[in-house]
Structure prediction request, 633 residues.
Amino acid sequence: MVELVWLIPALPLAGFAVLLLAGPRLGEPRAGWLATAASAGSFLFTLITFGGLLGLESATEGGAGGHGGRWFVSTLFEWMPIGGLEVDAALLVDPLSMTMALFVTGVGTLIHLYSVGYMHGDPKYSKFFLYLNLFLFSMLMLVLGENLVVTFLGWEGVGTCSYLLISFWHERPTAATAGKKAFVTNRIGDFGFMIATFLLWTTLGTVSYAGLAAGAPALATGTATAVSLLLLLAAAGKSAQLPLYVWLPDAMEGPTPVSAMVHAATMVTAGVYLLVRLNPVLTDTALLIIAIVGAATALFAALAAVAQHDIKKVLAYSTVSQLGYMFLAIGSGAYVAAIFHVVTHAFFKGLLFLGSGSVIHGLGDEQDMRRMGALRAVMPITAVTFIVGWLAIAGVPPLSGFWSKDEILLAAWEQPDIGPLLWVVGLVTALLTAYYMSRQTFLVFFGGQRWDDSAHPHESPATMTLPLVVLAGAAAIGGAVNLPLVGDWLVLEHFLEPVLAHPHHFASGTGTKLGLAVVAVVAALGGIAFAIRAWLQERIATDKLEPALLENVFYVDSTISNFVGGPGTKAFEAAATADRRFVDGAVNGVARLVRMLGEAVRPLQSGYLRHYASGVAVGAIILVIWLALRGVS
Prediction:
């Protein structure tokens, strides 16, 4: 059944095509149901393909080389037969691509369903689902691509769709600006992707993942490190790591389902996927840098989240922080832990974003948490499911977030030299995560009523609450896919190992593992307890917990804006002036010279025969005189 893999991206693409041609005629809600059906069909065929993959023979030892076992390539057509470069439009079915495709299509389908209710009444209803289907198709091409070129097709596709969806309500200046910021920032990452691809091609002569995995040991250390750092640049752009994180918080300007799609199920995980997919290329030096970048990003964004008031901005910085955890895992060589956290994060962060959208929908587009409170009574389904997501991301056992985050902290601990420092940063981040997510939950659902009586908050329709319930269940039990305490039930680890060049195996003893896990749980409970005293019992002055430095995110964004709007604008204007005066001036000067010469010789082309005859005669006389003079000499 693996031969049906082409249907996984084909169905969302077909949905996009139908909506492009007939979306306005279909209207609401048929356009939404069509897009949802296309996504659900893609999920169904992902399950069928996954079943076919399980039926293949277990991957051979060293399966990262890519042949035999659980590894199937479906070639759609020959794409680029150019000299020595041969690139096929081909899809790859292996444990990593299927793991990604399962949650992309599964969570993506729930987001489509949620959007049917959330986008009710929007004048661009069908266009929204057109973009959403195209987004899903692009992400699937990214994770299913058999080579870097096909992956780059999806990579650019999700970048374009993020611009279209973030700036969907482009009538708002802030939304239009946010879309442009996402587009421009991601171009920086694209530069890293392209140069890394060019380097790999010129060095190894292939862009196929199987060929790259097989040829990686032959790469010189300097070349491999350069490629690794370029891949880090690419991944930092898509997955919002320092310093390229600035686009992700502003992505909240799009409709809330976009936030869930971008932050939880698709685009932001692309950088993590790329690094794990090319793990045979990554060098020790690059891994150390990746770990440091991840740890720094996780702590930075967690500090920013503690002082935000917008319900979606808290989750946005939380996403940046959780992505930092994933990069910390990759830098620690724990690729399975990184993908494990990608999966659990898709569940609980998708739940939290959709839950926040339900709150916004029920409160008439209110997003300031200072104008909420006591909503658990009027929005019970939203409240209960949101609480599940809160406890999962806070790392409270036995919910999914605890298991995936604990693996990352353990991997950091085991790193030589700076391992304990990375672990401390990760632990502090975990404590902050438990605190700021508790703060958000208490401000929104507990305490006294702070919303105006005219708001009339209400529970969302079934199309919105059903995805919340499903995601809450996944967030609660999703950790079971890699549970180390039940007969070594490391299902995900054993499944993914064949595509990893150097699988990470924890060296710590059981006592160390349990001790670190207990410390992590105590940190999480400590963060929750502190939030209870501050935001429920009001025994701590909360104004001191929201300093301007953190509320303004260390003034990074404002500094960039001031620079771009001030010296940056002047520098660009100066460059434009120089271009007009010197570059354009030189080009225009040559044009003027040519025109002047043309005007000077124009009288010679009068069109009168007598003038041409006179010219011939004069020329003949001059020639005769010249010949006569030569004969005399």
Residues 556-601 form the longest helix (46 residues). Confidence is low (pLDDT under 50) at residues 59-68. The two ends are 97 Å apart (CA to CA). DSSP finds 23 helices and two strands in the chain.
